[in-house]
Design brief:
Layout: H1 9-13, H2 26-39, E1 43-48, H3 70-76, E2 80-86, H4 94-118, E3 123-125, H5 129-138, E4 141-148, H6 158-165, E5 168-172, H7 200-212, E6 215-217, H8 223-232, E7 238-239, H9 256-265, E8 268-272, H10 275-278, H11 280-300, H12 308-312, H13 316-338, H14 349-363, E9 368-371, H15 390-398, H16 403-432
Parallel strand pairs: 1-2, 2-4, 3-4, 4-5, 5-6, 7-8, 8-9
Helix pairs in contact: 2-15, 6-7, 7-16, 8-9, 11-13
Length: 434
């Protein structure tokens, strides 16, 4: 049974209900949402990690400052966290691929260490949807692995199987910057493309992913890359952390044409709780005020404040050092902001569920899911870490979603796609030995 905290309720209770729940009292709404939240499997497809938090002395059994830890998952009733093997884009050469591969392997090993030796009684790695249901029913939390950027594959497609055997169950073929496998959405900024979609090597990688049962993630690749992937794949695809471009015009979101491609393919888009992908105007106004506070804190700590692009341009060691400062700064900033009364409104759970509403109306309830991008820039007012996960369910109940629909959004749709991808792989493997 889940044992979660009801956090940030003042925020979500302020949002108007759909007709079906208008006559319910606040207490009745809370009770209904709590019951649903306990029964459904809640699954978040995108939680970034830092390998320094997977050691004997510092790890997820502790309530670290990270947005995801085991205590926070338990407090918020988050059952399944997809931990991300992320590699930033670098040079397309042998040395770059080698460094990326080493970085990816360090993250695979960190996730396995959490599940196998640090907290095996609290969390277990799932390889199939049956594993997810079995582990969740046992009372333990569930870990799954997604790969953000196919860059570590290098030019050796056998790495797809190697990553799959380590638990990788989805992979995007690029991140911010064009990889050797496909163009990235970031090409929209300057109009410069490397492959005009998926490269020849990328086509081989897609075939390997289909063969072994790894879901293709289209959240970071370009629109043309996505179109190519749908034409090439024999299985449904996912967008592991994207929202609706019609509501927020960001290249990381999917436009209506892309959404229809995804629906026709049978895939699922995992709506992401990333402020700047949900409401640009609210985000920018609030961000301006928050950065003023952050700069004051940085100055008091003797650190020069850097913009995101400046951070990403740093060498890896310096980037990690800055990230450590940022993680120390965030709780101080949060405390200061909580005492301020004249701030612009924050992007919140209501804005997030607005995107879910739009996506459900546009492509249907069977093709929409939920993700946070926690510890990778995600988090909104009301769902700022895993301990506040219940607030998403509460907002869905307030808007009139049924338990069946909420189950689909939280995990059912994603697991359905995963099962279909695995079934395609089984068929392809059987055909290969005939």
């Amino acid at each position: 049974m889940k044992n979660f905290l009801l956090l940030g309720l003042g925020l979500v209770l302020a949002v108007s209900c759909k007709q079906t729940n208008e006559t319910m009292s606040d207490d009745a709404l809370l009770a209904k949402a709590k019951d649903i939240h306990e029964r459904v499997i809640t699954l978040d497809t995108h939680c970034d990690i830092n390998v320094t938090n997977f050691t004997d002395s510092i790890n997820y059994t502790q309530d670290l400052q990270t947005q995801v830890t085991l205590p926070k998952m338990k407090a918020g009733g988050l059952d399944v966290a997809w931990f991300i093997v992320y590699t930033g884009q670098d040079s397309l050469n042998t040395d770059g691929y080698a460094r990326a591969y080493e970085n990816a392997m360090s993250k695979f090993h960190a996730i396995h260490r959490l599940c196998d030796s640090i907290a095996p009684d609290e969390i277990e790695l799932a390889y199939t949807s049956d594993d997810v249901r079995r582990i969740s029913a046992s009372g333990k939390k569930v870990a799954m692995i997604g790969i953000e950027n196919g860059y570590p594959v290098g030019e050796d497609i056998s790495n797809v199987k190697k990553f799959y055997d380590l638990g990788g169950r989805y992979m995007s073929l690029s991140h911010n910057g064009h990889s050797q496998l496909c163009d990235s959405n970031s090409g929209e900024e300057d109009g410069v493309w490397l492959h005009n979609g998926v490269s020849d090597l990328g086509k081989e990688v897609i075939a390997e992913m289909n063969k072994w049962g790894m879901m293709i993630d289209v959240s970071h690749p370009s629109k043309k890359s996505m179109k190519d992937m749908i034409a090439l794949t024999k299985a449904p695809i996912i967008a592991s952390h994207s929202s609706a471009r019609a509501l927020c015009n960001h290249s990381r979101n999917l436009d209506d044409e892309q959404l229809m491609w995804l629906k026709e393919n049978g895939g699922v888009v995992q709506t992401v709780a990333f402020k700047s992908y949900l409401n640009t105007e609210k985000y920018e106004a609030r961000q301006e005020a928050e950065i003023v506070v952050a700069k004051q804190i940085a100055d008091s700590m003797g650190v020069k404040w850097l913009e995101r692009k400046e951070v990403m341009a740093l060498p890896m060691a310096e980037r990690r050092e800055y990230f450590n400062f940022y993680m120390q700064m965030m709780p101080i900033q949060k405390q200061k902001l909580a005492k301020m009364t004249d701030l612009p409104p924050a992007v919140d759970v209501g804005d997030f569920v607005d995107h879910i509403d739009y996506l459900v109306e546009k492509i249907g309830i069977d093709h929409v899911g939920i993700s946070s991008d926690f510890d990778g820039g995600g988090g909104i007012a009301g769902w700022d870490d895993a301990s506040e996960t219940f607030n998403v369910t509460l907002e869905l109940v307030k808007r009139g979603y049924t338990e069946e629909q909420i189950e689909k959004l939280w995990s059912g749709n994603l697991l359905r796609v995963f099962d279909e991808v695995q079934a395609v792989a089984a068929r392809l493997q059987a055909e290969a030995v005939q």
